[in-house]
Amino acid sequence: MRVVWLIVAGAAGGILAGMGMGGGTLTIPLLVLALGVSQRAAQFVNLVAFLPTGAAALAVHTGKGLVSGGCLRYILPPALVAASLVSYFAAEVDQEVLGRVFGGFLVLLAAGGLVSGAAAKRAGRSGGF
Predict the structure, then answer these.
(1) How is the protein disposed in the membrane (predicted)?
(2) Taking a C-beta distance cutoff of 8 angstroms, is the pair 13, 27 a contact?
């Protein structure tokens, strides 16, 4: 059964990565909650899985002309700095705290999606961020 859950987590993460949404928002909770993997190990697995899935998605999106170099030059530098700094935090902080921070992020993400979706519906357009 464990292998089935690993396949489900991989497929779900790949689907989200292919859409440019980041598979970790689903992969990490599946690994932690369904398989009992530690938060830190789940985040490491997600980072390793992200490299090939992100490269594949980037190749497809670039090939279709969907990647804007203008946006990347502004988004990439602060993203690299933030990822580096937060990686140190994630490696040092207690696993329970790490899980709570990640869970809080998911709750905020979901709430933001609900609020922006409701506002978009009132305005007569499709929802989401």
Answers:
(1) Multi-pass membrane protein
(2) yes
Q: Where are the domains of the chain?
A: 2-67
Closest listed residue to residue 45, CA positions, set 21, 2, 20, 10: 10
pLDDT over 80 at 84, yes or no: yes
What distance in Å separates the CA atoms of residue 121 and residue 81, rounded to the nearest whole number?
A: 36
How many C-alpha atoms does 49 have within 13 Å on its Cβ side? Answer: 26
- Residue found by looking up tokens 């599946």 in the block: 30
CA 129 to chain CA mean position, Å: 15
pLDDT of residue 129: 42
